[in-house]
Amino acid sequence: MSKKRTIKGKSKTEFMLDCFAKAREINPGWTKEIFHFNGAYDEETLTSLMWKNSSDVHGLQLSITGDLFFKQALKLDPYEIQIDSITGMRVVQMSKNLPWPYTVSLLRPPGNGYTVTLYSEEVAVWAALYGNDIDKLMEAYSR
What we know:
By secondary structure, this protein is mainly α. The protein folds into 2 domains: 12-73, no CATH class; 79-142. It contains 7 helices and 3 strands, in the order ααααβαββαα. It has helices at residues 12-26, 30-35, 43-49, 64-73, 88-97, 121-129, 134-142, and strands at 79-83, 102-106, 114-118. Strands 1-3-2 form a 3-stranded antiparallel beta sheet. β2 (102-106) and β3 form a beta hairpin. The model has no long low-confidence stretch (mean pLDDT 88).
């Protein structure tokens, strides 16, 4: 059985509920602006839309919706690492080891590699210390 992934000791749902509360402080109309919700919405359902895989035993990779939420509702300025390829081993290592939400996207134009977007200053500092080498970063977090 896989180990439950948490963010600062909280499940994905608990973490996102805190994020939704913070988003309401920063931008009270975020649900309408970003998701075009005019009325009530179910935060637990919305939470499941934020992750590539919402199970608590899977990694912390955000979906496109989650990425949009972090950038627009929380007004975060993420840190980006450019990498040449996404191997199966890299995907597994990021899923197992990155302690904070992130995204992986194809660089434009296609064929130029990928961007790993980090939503944690702490992880960004460690990435910079490892020269933005994702493999060295994953090795450090695996210890």
